[in-house]
Amino acid sequence: MKKLASILFTFLLILSCSEDKDDNVSQVSTTFNFTHNWEGTLVTNANFNTIQYINANGEELSIEKLRYLISKITFQNTNGKTYIIDGYNLVDVTNNSNLSFSSVTTIPTGDYTNVSFVFGFNNDDNYNNNYPDLNSTSWNVPEMLGGGYHYMQLEGKFIDNTTTETGYAYHAIRAVDNSGTNLEFEDTFIEVNLGEVTITNNATFNIEMNIAQWFKSPNTWDLNVLNNMLMPNYDAQIMIYENGQNAFSLESVTQ
């Protein structure tokens, strides 16, 4: 009887170790790298503060600030189960910081029908003063516009129609109409879908943003008309949302 119990214990121990090993192998980490370009030409903060880009409307412009928020990275597998990566990341191209985001949350290896992330915060996450680190970076939206947080700040200078160097502030937030008694909102966060992927090992997703797209389509952006005070401009925020649908793309996945 003791011999049988010993054999059974040994079998269970081996099975347990085998299961632990399989679990360790099947759980992998993910990293998201963000790079930026202007119609295929690499853009870094070394290219800032010089008027050298031409938008779809023919205006010459520079970039002096670019930072934006990504959140809710989500993996959906072939069985319909979703895995959401904890945390969010404020990509700050100006200061060359947070261009890469790695989470402690792991996911199983396997086939995924879609990988996505949210540009900005969705409504559930877009709380007033809920994130001390974002509060300390002046990322808040004023209460008169409904509070919450920015999605993007893109700033620089452009040559206006009087050939004068003029500043622009292309800021994306949740669209709000504050013309009436009560604030009325429209969702303008963007769910960026990266498509199918098979995960076999620790994976790095290389994501590109084409900055020119924010000025391009479906709305050709006229900086002479829309250069500042865009946050309280409901129609401008809808246009930003529409242009941002194709601003991001998956360049590659390395494993």
From TrEMBL:
All residue ranges annotated as the Copper-binding protein MbnP-like domain in the record: 30-225
Top-rank lineage group of the source organism: Bacteria
InterPro entries noted in UniProt: MbnP-like_dom (IPR046863)
Protein name: Copper-binding protein MbnP-like domain-containing protein
Taxonomic source organism: Flaviramulus basaltis
